[in-house]
Amino acid sequence: MSEGSSANPALRLSYNVRQPSGGAMKISPSSIGRLLEEISWEGNARKYRQGGRGFENVLTAEVFQALDFLPRSSFLGRIIASLAGGDPETLRLLSEQIEHTTFSLLPGGIFLSEDSSAGEPPLEIQPDGILESPSVYCLLEVKRIKPAYFQAEQLSREYLTALQEAEDRRPLPLLVLPKPPPVLVKGHGRMSLREAVAQSIQAVLDRAEAEFPPAEELVQRVDAVFAYTTWARVQQDVEAAVEDFAAAAPSLRASISRVAKAVTSAIQWHS
Which of 11, 41, 62, 152 has the fewest CB atoms below 10 angstroms from its CB? Predict the structure, then answer.
């Protein structure tokens, strides 16, 4: 176990999860390539003629690719440190380890179950991003700035996936939202994160292949595991980081300001 990664005992779980039987998925190494892969499955490319304005996957690629290019401690680390909810120690560790974090955008599907023998499709999620530090496994879920909803089981699936993939690290499902919770859940209206998980967690547990704590225990831990921010807060953090960033070379500061402007411009354009 990594130093500083001793999670709550309720979250140190044992698993027996199969790897996908089809071999490694061929994923483009670039964010733009992965974005095009996502678009290729949507079946109606004409809706992207305005440059994908308002679409989650386009916003995600534009903002988080730029954030990945900026100095990690000053920008992405600042965003992590200002998150609402979650476990303070988990957020501290990820912020401190941000320079040693692997950041993957649109990484492809992760399976909670590949069994389709009962006539149901495999239990899969497709996160918007993954941040992996020595002590924290962070699963990123982005919602567009315009009104958007979660699927009925989406938060429960992401919760269990973060637990499954974290192994001996601390799990952190991270939501980027248009505004703070309650969130809109399809078929249920606005709900707190705990309510959204509570109404679907047992149905997901019944189909998952790994071993997890009981549903009641998982629901009690929601507020200590999930963290979130808003697009407005991301923009504020980036603008503040530009103001605080001290670079000796004017050219370096100008370069950082241009990349940071790409983040704030994307947020404003997609609003």
Answer: 41
> Higher pLDDT residue, 34 or 162?
162
The enclosing H or E element of 113 equals strand 110-113
* Dihedral class, residue 28 (left if φ above 0, else alpha if ψ from -120 to 50, else beta): beta
123 neighbors 164 (Cβ within 8 angstroms): no
For residue 79, is it within any domain? yes
The contacts found for 46-51 with CB under 8 angstroms, 24 or more apart, are: none
CA atoms of 11 and 9, how far apart (whole Å): 5
Q: What is the pLDDT of residue 56?
A: 79
pLDDT 10s digits, 98-124:
999 999 998 989 999 987 766 778 899
The answer to whether residue 147 sits within a structural domain is yes
Is 184 a residue whose pLDDT tops 90? yes
In a domain, 26, yes or no: no
Full residue range of the structural domain in which residue 176 is found:
60-270
Handedness of CA 51, 53, 57, 60 (dihedral sign): positive
CB contact at 8 A, 76 and 102: no
Residue 171 has what pLDDT? Answer: 98
CB under 8 Å, gap of 24 or more: what pairs does 251-260 form? 256/70, 256/71, 259/66, 259/69, 259/70, 260/66, 260/70, 260/75
| Total Cβ atoms within 10 A of residue 171 | 26
- Kindly report which listed range (49-53, 59-63, 241-245) carries the lowest average pLDDT score: 49-53
Rounded mean pLDDT of the chain?
Answer: 85
Domain count for the chain: 1
Mean pLDDT for the stretch of residues 149-164: 97
- Cis check: omega of the bond before 182, within 30 degrees of 0: yes
